[in-house]
Write a structure and sequence with these properties.
By secondary structure, the protein is of the alpha/beta class. It has a single domain, classed as Purple Acid Phosphatase, chain A, domain 2. The chain has 8 helices and 13 strands. The chain has a 5-stranded mixed β-sheet with strand order 3-2-1-12-13, with helices on one face. It starts with a strand and ends with a strand. 44% of the residues are buried.
C-alpha cells in the first residue's frame, strides 16, 4: 500500500491518467492525495471531478482557489469569467451532485507528520489553530447555505491575523492563506501580486515558508498552487505544482519513500 500526492491537475485529465499509469496506481491498495485545483486550465475539468467522485473512497483532494471559485459561480455568487473553462461542469446534468460533493471537500488534511493544504499556512498559526480555521470554513461550505462563505471570501483584506476584526474577515483570511498565499511582506502581510519564481522574490518579500520559526514547524506541509515555484523538497515543506496547465509537467510524490514521478503535458 502506498500514498501518492499529486500536484494541481487543473482539468488536465489526459496527463492525470498517464501519471496514474506511471505510478501504477492500484485503487485496491493505494491512496491518492491531491493538492487542490481540480479544475480550470486544461480542457477536461468535468472528467477530473467525476474521477475523484467515483474514487472517493481512495482519493482525497483539498480545496484550491479555483475549486472555490467554481463553487461561487455554480451557486450564483460570482459570474463566470472569460478565462474560466469549467463550463462543461456547469452544463453537466449532474452538476448539482458534483458541486455538493465538491463543497464537502476539506481545506486541510492532517496525517502525522504530513499536512496537505493547497497554498500554505500562515507562520503564526500552530497546527491546531490551522485545523480549527479550516474546520470553520468547511462547516460553512457544508451547511445548507454555503453562500454565506462564498459571498465573503473574495478580497485581499485583512492581510494578517492581527488585522482581523470580524468573523467574516477571519473566514476570508483563512481562505486566502490556505488557497492563495505565495509571499509575505517583511511585517507578515499577505501579498497577492507576486506570482513569479522563488529566485525573483523581491528583497522586501519572502516566501511564506521562509519565515523564521513558524508556529507550525512541527508539521511537514505538502502543497501546490505556486506553479512558478515548481517541485521543492525542503525540511518542512514539499511543493508539487509543476505547471501542467501551462504546458509543463504533472507531478506525484510518494510519501513512504519520497520518490518523485512526473509526466510531460500534452
Amino acid at each position: 500500500m502506498a500514498t501518492y500526492v499529486m500536484g494541481d491537475i487543473h482539468g488536465c485529465f489526459e496527463e492525470f491518467q498517464r501519471l496514474l499509469e506511471e505510478i501504477e496506481f492500484d485503487p485496491a491498495s493505494d491512496r491518492l492525495w491531491h493538492t487542490g485545483d481540480l479544475v480550470n486550465g486544461g480542457p477536461l475539468s468535468l472528467e477530473v471531478v467525476r474521477w475523484f467522485v467515483e474514487h472517493d473512497r481512495v482519493a482525497t483532494t483539498v480545496l484550491g482557489n479555483h475549486d472555490l471559485h467554481l463553487l461561487a459561480v455554480a451557486y450564483g455568487v460570482k459570474k463566470k469569467r472569460s478565462v474560466d473553462n469549467f463550463g462543461d461542469i456547469l452544463r453537466a446534468p449532474d452538476c448539482r451532485e458534483l458541486m455538493d460533493w465538491l463543497r464537502h471537500r476539506p481545506m486541510l488534511v492532517h496525517s502525522e507528520p504530513w499536512v496537505l493544504v493547497h497554498a500554505g499556512l500562515l507562520p503564526g498559526w500552530t497546527l491546531q489553530t490551522a485545523k480549527e480555521r479550516a474546520r470553520d470554513v468547511e462547516e460553512l461550505l457544508r451547511s445548507s447555505k454555503p453562500e454565506q462563505l462564498l459571498e465573503v471570501m473574495y478580497g485581499n483584506r485583512p492581510r494578517r491575523p492581527e488585522d482581523v476584526t470580524t468573523v467574516e474577515e477571519r473566514w476570508r483570511l483563512t481562505v486566502n492563506a490556505m488557497t492563495r498565499m505565495r509571499v509575505l511582506t517583511d511585517d507578515g502581510k499577505l501579498e497577492f501580486q507576486f506570482k513569479s519564481t522563488y529566485e525573483e522574490i523581491p528583497d522586501d518579500r519572502m516566501a511564506w515558508f521562509d519565515v523564521d520559526d513558524p508556529a507550525w514547524q512541527s508539521a511537514r506541509i505538502i502543497c501546490g498552487h505556486w506553479s512558478a515555484l515548481g517541485f521543492r523538497n525542503m525540511d518542512h515543506v514539499v511543493t508539487l505544482d509543476t505547471g501542467c496547465r501551462w504546458g509543463n509537467r504533472l507531478t506525484a510524490f510518494r510519501l513512504e519513500d519520497e520518490a518523485l514521478f512526473s509526466v510531460e503535458s500534452g
